[in-house]
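Budget justification aside, the reviewers requested a transparent look at the raw inputs and outputs of the sequence design task funded under Objective 1. We therefore reproduce one unedited record. The lines immediately below are the structure tokens for a 85-residue chain.
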């Protein structure tokens, strides 16, 4: 079973270095503030970084604001925000 998992993993996953590509891309490119960057390959599991789609929940600005506020509370930190509160 471990052999099968290793073979399948190599087919659908990417290396550690390639896993960092979307983060580096998002940090260095001029993208809209609500862009989500991920692998551009099949099922967004591997490949070069591209702006990819998000679920309806991930696009919900009310949920995002609540998550941001909870993060501030849990970390006793206040972050600057451009979202109206």
């Amino acid at each position: 079973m471990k052999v099968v998992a290793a073979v399948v993993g190599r087919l659908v996953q990417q290396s550690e270095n390639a896993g960092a590509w979307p983060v580096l891309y998002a940090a260095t490119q001029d993208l809209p503030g609500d862009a989500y960057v991920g692998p551009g390959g099949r099922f967004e599991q591997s490949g070069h970084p591209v702006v990819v789609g998000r679920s309806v929940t991930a696009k919900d600005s009310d949920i995002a604001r609540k998550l941001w506020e909870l993060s501030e509370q849990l970390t006793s930190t206040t972050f600057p925000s451009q979202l109206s509160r």
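Residues 58 and 64 are 8 Å apart (CA to CA). The first strand starts at residue 37 and ends at 39. Computational costs for records of this kind are itemized in the attached budget.
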